[in-house]
Amino acid sequence: MISGACNHVGGPLGRGTLEGDYVTCPWHQWRFHRATAKGEPGYEEDAVPAFAIKIENGHVFIDLNSGTARTHKKREPHPLARPSERAPGPVRVVSVSTTAMDSAYPRRSTSERLLEIRLKKRARC
Ligand code: FES
Predict the structure, then answer these.
(1) Angle at CA 5, nearest 5°, toward 13 and 100?
(2) Fewest C-beta atoms under 10 Å: which of 15, 31, 61, 96?
(3) Judging by beta carbons within 10 Å of its beta carbon (0-12, 13-18, 19+), is residue 45 exposed, middle or buried?
(4) Can you give the pTM of this predicted structure?
(5) Which of 3, 6, 22, 72, when mutated, tests ligand 1's pocket best, judged by the most ligand atoms within 8 Å of its CB?
(6) Residue closest to 40 by CA, chosen among 80, 8, 83, 4
(7) Residue 21 and residue 89: Cα distance in Å, rounded?
(8) What is the DSSP pairing of strand 22-24 with strand 31-33?
């Protein structure tokens, strides 16, 4: 059994989907092997804790003391994480959402929420 908290920003792996041998996080689609808890190929150093289980008389027992270490693979910072530069001229507002969303991976977009708030404030001006 693997941890329910994703390595990325703690997304709910327990609400993810099982695709082959990998659990896909519903927030940004990082993937972890269902048995080894390691990241998908190329990201094996990025592992969530794995726990030993046993089944006896129809009951599942989880050995909470058996958890393996959570490990992280250093990743390049996202291009949008660069420092912003304010150029002279009028204020420009751009909304960018990097969250992958579709009917299979529904999630509320904070970028869209921010844009809604800005548009409401703009409508009042
Ligand atoms: S929190 Fe899991 S992929 Fe982002």
Answers:
(1) 50
(2) 96
(3) exposed
(4) 0.66
(5) 6
(6) 8
(7) 52
(8) antiparallel
Confidence bin at 11 (pLDDT 50/70/90): very high
Answer for the pair 11, 26: CB distance below 8 angstroms, yes or no: yes
1-74 maps to CATH 2.40.160.20: no
Residue in 21, 25, 19, 20 with CA at minimum distance from that of residue 7: 25
* pLDDT at residue number 97: 62
| Domains in the chain: boundaries | 1-74, 90-125
Question: What's the pLDDT score for residue 95?
Answer: 65
**CA 12 / ligand 1 centre spacing (Å):** 8
